[in-house]
C-alpha cells in the first residue's frame, strides 16, 4: 500500500502540473487568436472607412448602414444636408401662400389652381416646382379635374432625380400615396418601380423610409416590403447616433463602439479636429461573420462573458477556448487518471484478497480449534466408557455371565467407535495431503452395505434404531475400493443417527439408475435447512439444530464421504426438508466400462 500511495501522490502531482501547463498554453493561444482576430477586424473596418472617405459607399451597401458627416461637433445626417439652392424668389412664396389660402380657407379651387400655376412658373429649383405641382394636383382634384390632376402627379412620379422637402422626404412619395388607391395593375407596377428605385438610389430619412415601406406593403407585400420595413427600423435606431459622437471623439485611437444592442459597429474617420471627419455605422454581424474564428471560439456582443478584444473595440469580446489538434494535454491527463485508477483498483483488490485470506485463516483457525475440542470430547467418551467397563470386570462387580457379556460388548463397540474416529481423522489428513491411495477391484456393493451395518450394529442397538436394508438384485459388481465405500456408508449411517428425531428408523437401499449404482441412506429426523445444504460437505462444518445447538462431532464425516465419492468418479447428493428427514444418495459408475 505504501508504494501505491507514493504512485498516487506522484500521479496527482503530475496531473496538476499538466493542468497548469495546459492552462498556460490555452491562455497563450487565446491571446494569439485575439491578436489575429483584432488585426483582421481592424483591416476590414479600415478598408470600409477608406471607401466611405472616398465616397464609394452606396445607400444599398450590405456592409455599411450609414455614413454621416461631422460638422463642428454636430452630426449631420445625409438626409439633413441641403442641396445647393439659388436665392429664393419672394414671388414664388407669395403665390404659393395665396394658392393655399384660396384652397383651404376660401374654398376656391379654380383660383387656387391659377395661383399654383403662377407659383410653378416662378419656381427656381426642382423642389419649389415639385411643391407647386403637388398643390396644383390637390386643387385640380377638388375642382373635379381628376384626369389633369392625375397627369400632374405622374409628372412628379417620373421626376429624375426626385426632389425632396425640408424633412428629406421625396415629393415622389407624396405623389405615390395619392395615386396608389384605385390604380390599375399597370399603373401600380409603375408606382412600385418608382418607389423601389428611389429607396435604392438614395439614403432616405426615417420618415421617408417608413412611407416607402408602407407603399411597398400596399403594392406588393413580401420580401421587398420586409426589407424596406427593416431598413426603416434601422434608420429609426441610427437617428440616435449623435449621442455617441462625444464618446467617440474622446478616444485617442480610432474606436469602434457597439451601438443598437450590438447591431452596428460605429466609428469616426480621421483625427480629432479634422473638419472632414465621417461617422460610419457598419453592420456588426456581417463584419464579424466575415472573420473565420477557430473552433470553440465565438463572438459576444455587449455581454460580460469572455475576454475583451481591446480598447479599440469596447463591448466586443471573444468567448470559448480555441481548439488545436496538437493539444494532447487532455489525452495525457486521461492516461494519468486511468493509470491512477488502475493502481487504486489493484491496491483495493489486493487489500480485499488479503482481508479475505485473513478472514478465511481466522475461520479455519477457529474451526481447527473447535475440531480439536470436538475430537477431544469424542475421544474422551468412548475411552471413559471402556475404562469404566474394564474396571468393573477387573473388580468382579458382575452379577452373572450375561452382565459380563454386556460389558464386553460395550468395550468392543466403544473400541470400534474409537477406531472409526481415529481412522476418520487419519483418512482426512491423508486426503488433505493427497496421500490416500485407493485399491480398486470388482466389489459387490451388497456385501459392503452388510459389512457397514454389522460394524454399526452395537451403536444402532444402543440408540434404539431400526435399520431396514433393501437391495436390488440387478446391481452387479462395481469397480471400487471396498473399504472406502464401506467407510462412506458408515459415515452416512452415523450422520443419520445423529440427526434422527423421535422416529428411530433408518433406511439403507441399493438400486440401479441407468449407468449408476445408487446407495441411499434415509432418515426421518429433523432435516436440513436449504441454506445449510450447500455447506454440509465443507470440512469442519456442522449444521445447527433448530434451537441453535450443534450436534457433537468432528464435522469431517460428510467431507470424507464427498472425497471418497469424487475419487470413484461419482457424486453425492442430498434431499431434505426441515422436519421431514434427509436422504443422501451416492451415485457410482456401474456401466460395462466402469
Q: Features of this protein?
A:
594 residues; alpha+beta; Serine Threonine Protein Phosphatase 5, Tetratricopeptide repeat; 4 domains; five-stranded antiparallel β-sheet; five-stranded mixed β-sheet; rod-shaped
Description:
The chain is of the alpha+beta class. It folds into four domains: 27-77 and 245-319, no CATH class; 90-205, Serine Threonine Protein Phosphatase 5, Tetratricopeptide repeat (Alpha Horseshoe), CATH 1.25.40; 329-406; 438-589, Heat Shock Protein 90, CATH 3.30.565. Helix content is 56%, strand content 13%. It contains 18 helices and 15 strands. It has helices at 2-53, 90-104, 109-122, 126-143, 146-157, 171-180, 185-201, 206-219, 223-238, 242-250, 284-289, 329-394, 401-433, 445-455, 457-463, 482-498, 530-533, 557-567, and strands spanning 64-71, 74-76, 257-259, 264-268, 278-283, 297-301, 307-308, 316-320, 441-443, 466-471, 478-480, 505-513, 516-523, 571-576, 582-589. It has a five-stranded antiparallel beta sheet, sandwiched between helices. The longest helix has 66 residues, at 329-394. It starts with a helix and ends in a 5-residue tail after the last strand. The mean pLDDT is 81.
The CATH homology group name of the largest domain: Histidine kinase-like ATPase, C-terminal domain
Q: Share of helix among residues? A: 55-70%
Q: How much of the residues is beta strand, in percent? A: 5-15%
Describe the sheet with the most strands: 5 strands, antiparallel
Quote the average pLDDT: 81
Q: Which residues sit in consecutive blocks of at least 5 with pLDDT less than 50? A: none
Query: Cα distance, first to last residue?
Result: 54 Å
Task: Specify the CATH class of the largest domain.
Answer: Alpha Beta
Q: What structural class is derived from the secondary structure elements?
A: alpha+beta
Count of DSSP strands: 15
Architecture (CATH level 2) name of the largest domain: 2-Layer Sandwich
Spatial strand sequence of the major β-sheet: 2-1-5-4-3
**Number of helical segments?**
18
Q: What is the number of independent domains?
A: 4
Per the principal axes of the C-alpha atoms, what is the gross shape? rod-shaped
Instruction: State the CATH topology of the largest domain.
Output: Heat Shock Protein 90
Rg value: 58 Å
Amino acid at each position: 500500500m505504501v508504494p501505491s500511495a507514493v504512485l498516487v501522490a506522484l500521479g496527482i502531482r503530475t496531473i496538476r502540473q499538466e493542468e497548469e501547463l495546459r492552462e498556460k498554453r490555452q491562455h497563450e493561444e487565446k491571446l494569439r487568436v485575439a491578436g489575429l482576430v483584432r488585426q483582421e477586424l481592424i483591416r476590414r473596418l479600415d478598408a470600409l472607412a477608406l471607401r466611405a472617405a472616398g465616397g464609394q459607399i452606396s445607400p444599398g451597401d450590405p456592409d455599411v448602414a450609414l455614413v454621416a458627416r461631422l460638422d463642428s461637433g454636430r452630426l449631420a445626417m445625409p438626409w439633413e444636408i441641403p442641396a445647393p439652392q439659388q436665392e429664393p424668389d419672394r414671388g414664388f412664396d407669395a403665390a404659393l401662400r395665396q394658392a393655399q389660402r384660396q384652397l383651404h380657407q376660401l374654398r376656391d379651387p379654380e383660383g387656387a389652381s391659377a395661383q399654383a400655376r403662377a407659383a410653378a412658373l416662378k419656381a427656381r429649383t426642382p423642389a419649389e416646382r415639385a411643391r407647386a405641382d403637388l398643390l396644383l394636383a390637390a386643387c385640380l382634384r377638388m375642382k373635379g379635374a381628376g384626369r389633369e390632376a392625375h397627369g400632374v402627379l405622374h409628372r412628379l412620379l417620373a421626376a429624375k432625380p426626385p426632389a425632396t422637402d425640408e424633412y428629406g422626404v421625396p415629393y415622389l412619395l407624396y405623389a405615390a400615396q395619392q395615386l396608389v388607391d384605385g390604380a390599375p395593375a399597370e399603373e401600380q407596377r409603375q408606382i412600385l418601380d418608382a418607389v423601389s428605385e428611389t429607396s435604392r438610389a438614395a439614403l432616405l430619412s426615417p420618415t421617408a423610409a417608413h412611407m416607402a415601406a408602407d407603399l411597398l406593403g400596399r403594392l406588393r407585400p413580401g420580401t421587398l416590403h420586409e426589407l424596406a420595413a427593416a431598413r426603416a427600423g434601422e434608420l429609426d435606431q441610427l437617428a440616435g447616433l449623435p449621442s455617441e459622437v462625444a464618446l467617440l471623439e474622446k478616444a485617442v485611437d480610432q474606436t469602434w463602439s457597439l451601438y443598437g444592442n450590438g447591431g452596428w459597429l460605429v466609428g469616426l474617420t480621421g483625427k480629432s479636429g479634422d473638419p472632414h471627419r465621417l461617422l460610419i455605422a457598419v453592420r456588426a454581424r456581417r463584419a464579424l461573420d466575415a472573420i473565420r474564428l477557430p473552433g470553440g471560439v465565438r463572438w459576444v456582443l455587449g455581454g460580460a462573458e469572455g475576454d475583451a478584444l481591446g480598447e479599440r473595440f469596447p463591448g466586443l469580446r471573444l468567448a470559448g477556448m480555441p481548439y488545436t489538434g496538437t493539444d494532447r494535454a487532455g489525452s495525457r491527463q486521461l492516461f494519468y487518471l486511468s493509470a491512477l485508477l488502475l493502481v487504486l483498483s489493484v491496491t483495493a483488490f489486493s487489500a480485499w484478497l488479503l482481508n479475505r485470506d485473513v478472514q478465511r485463516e481466522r475461520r479455519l483457525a477457529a474451526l481447527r480449534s473447535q475440531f480439536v475440542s470436538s475430537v477431544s470430547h469424542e475421544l474422551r467418551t468412548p475411552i471413559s466408557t471402556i475404562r469404566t467397563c474394564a474396571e468393573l470386570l477387573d473388580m468382579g462387580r458382575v452379577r452373572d455371565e450375561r452382565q459380563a457379556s454386556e460389558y464386553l460388548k460395550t468395550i468392543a463397540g466403544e473400541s470400534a467407535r474409537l477406531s472409526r474416529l481415529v481412522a476418520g481423522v487419519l483418512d482426512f489428513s491423508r486426503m488433505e495431503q493427497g496421500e490416500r491411495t485407493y485399491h480398486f477391484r470388482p466389489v459387490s456393493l451388497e456385501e459392503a452395505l452388510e459389512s457397514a451395518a454389522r460394524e454399526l450394529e452395537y451403536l444402532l442397538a444402543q440408540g434404539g434404531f431400526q435399520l431396514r436394508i433393501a437391495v436390488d438384485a440387478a446391481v452387479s459388481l462395481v469397480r471400487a475400493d471396498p473399504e472406502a465405500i464401506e467407510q462412506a456408508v458408515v459415515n452416512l449411517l452415523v450422520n443419520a443417527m445423529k440427526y434422527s428425531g423421535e422416529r428411530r428408523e433408518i433406511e439403507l437401499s441399493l438400486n440401479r439408475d441407468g449407468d449408476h449404482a445408487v446407495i441411499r441412506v434415509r432418515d426421518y429426523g429433523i432435516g436440513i435447512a436449504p441454506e445449510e445444504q450447500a455447506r454440509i460437505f465443507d470440512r469442519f462444518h456442522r449444521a445447527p439444530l433448530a434451537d441453535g445447538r450443534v450436534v457433537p462431532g468432528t464435522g469431517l464425516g460428510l467431507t470424507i464421504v464427498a472425497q471418497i465419492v469424487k475419487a470413484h468418479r461419482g457424486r453425492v447428493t442430498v434431499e431434505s426438508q426441515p422436519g421431514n428427514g434427509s436422504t443422501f444418495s451416492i451415485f457410482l459408475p456401474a456401466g460395462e466400462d466402469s
